[in-house]
Structure formats: structure tokens, C-alpha cells
Amino acid sequence: MTSTTPARAGTAVAAACAAFGRDVEDNLARVGGLVQDARDRGVGLLALPEACLGGYLSVLGVGRDGSHDERPDDLPPAMDLDGPELRRVAEIAREMTVVVGLCESDGSERYNTAAVVTGDGVLGAHRKVHQPLGESLFYSAGQDFACVDTPMGRLGTLICYDKAFPEAARALAVDDADVIACISAWPASRTATGASLAEDRWTQRFNLFDAARALENQVVWLAANQHGTFGRLRFVAHAKVVGPGGDVLATTGTEPGLAVAELDVPAALETARRAMFHLSDRRPETYAAVTTSSLTGAGRA
């Protein structure tokens, strides 16, 4: 792919909250509209939601007996990283860096994937590692975490449930991430729904994870999310930009749209890390149990 960039990328960063279904052409048109809106607002890096190119799974849940008693009516269309859909995204992105979610196929396995795209093509991709509530029935799991260099700095990507694991974001931070984009199709609780979406317990968890991961790693954090409903799922929205001090710089709340923050990323990181730099103060030799523990479920009896 070749860039047809006529302009210099903006300095703002943004995360999108929008609805995406199975219609790939409609999704690409929506991507185009969001990218143009972001471009008009000076954005150089935009994170779009998980599964934005083909929609998410229409149901996701576990029965009371531990069985997976609900199945999606259909599955997202499988795409290739070198395929026509991502070529279209590259044409749309031009000078911008855009993170998009898709169902990737390598010819034998399907993965829930986040691709980092500019007008020059796909710079890198992350396959979702942590799989909640039966997602492993439909996708294979990714195996690693790695950053890529972009025009907006060194970027790491995560997908949805990945954010619940501190080790995932930390792996990107120690790979010198300036920005981590976590794209999601994060739903509201189906068993103890809040009085409002803003008060839902899964909304609260979504927001807590975003602030904690940004603060503990002292990175700029972009959290994109789906909006509305898909099958039996209702998404919590709340796309946001979080600064390296854990402060929310912009959010969509429960509404669709873009959370945009004008941000000098290197300066923001330097300021946050000037007095206390969490990464340099680590004591990795004391953390062996984090990766060697065999605990499962609720832990030791």
C-alpha cells in the first residue's frame, strides 16, 4: 500500500464510541466518517472499537452450570491483514494512525485482532490474549504483547478483557510504549444491571481499569468501545483518553462520538515521570510468583 498523504498528522489523540454490525460496507463508511471527523479536529492517532470491521459476537455468556448454553446466530466475517478491508482503511487513514478491530484469519485459525494502520499500510497487529465467557469457542488466543513505532510515537494495543490483567499493559510499557490503545466491545452486566448505564457495575470496572492501567504504567491510554446493542449485548460506551497520571482528559460518557484530547505525548510523559518513574522503580526479581503461580479459580483453600 502506498500513502497518498497530502497533509501532516495532527497532534491530538482520540478514542471512538460507535456501533458496528455485520455489514462491512456500512462499517467502512462509518470508519471513514469517524476518521474525517477526527482529522477535522486535529487528531493524529485514533482508536476505533473492537470488531469494528465486522461486528462482535451476538451473544456471550456462560450458563449457571458452567456450560456455554448460548451461541451466536452468526460469526463475524474473517479478514486477512493483507486483504481489501484493511487496504480500504489505509486509504481512509492517509496521514493518520488508526487502530481498528477485526476478525482475522491466518488461513486456519480465527483471531480477535487489533490492527494499527496508516496510509502506508498495516504497521502491526495484536491478537487478543485473554478470552472471557466462552470467546475461546470462536477465536484462538494471541500469544504475545508488542509495540509498534508510529508517526504518533511508540504504540501498544490491547483488546477489551486484556485490560483486566496488569501484566498485559505492563508488557507493553516495558516495551517502551508511549501510548496504549485498548479497543473494546465491553458490555454492561447481564446479571445485575445498574439503574442507568453510567451506574452499571461493568461500566465502573471499565473506567477503573482504564485509569489504573494508565497511572501504573504512566502512559497515555486510549479506550475505544462499541455503542448501543448487538444481539443480547448492551455496550457501556465510555470511550476516553486518559493521561499518564490517571486523569481522564476526554470521554464520550454514555453517548456515541469521539473523545478527543490535544496532547503533546512526549511532554506529558516527561512531566508524569519527572519525580517518580514507576517503571524504573520496579523490582522484577521480587515478582516471580506473578508468572509462576499455579493458582486457579478463587485461589487457595
From TrEMBL:
InterPro entries: Aliph_Amidase/BUP, C-N_Hydrolase, C-N_Hydrolase_sf
SUPFAM superfamilies hit by this protein: Carbon-nitrogen hydrolase
PROSITE patterns for the chain: CN_HYDROLASE (PS50263)
Pfam families (alphabetical): CN_hydrolase (PF00795)
Keywords carried by this UniProt record: Hydrolase
Residue span(s) of domain CN hydrolase: 9-265
GO terms of molecular function: hydrolase activity
Origin superkingdom: Bacteria
Positions in coiled-coil regions: none
Name of the protein in question: Carbon-nitrogen hydrolase family protein
Organism whose genome encodes this protein: Nocardioides cremeus
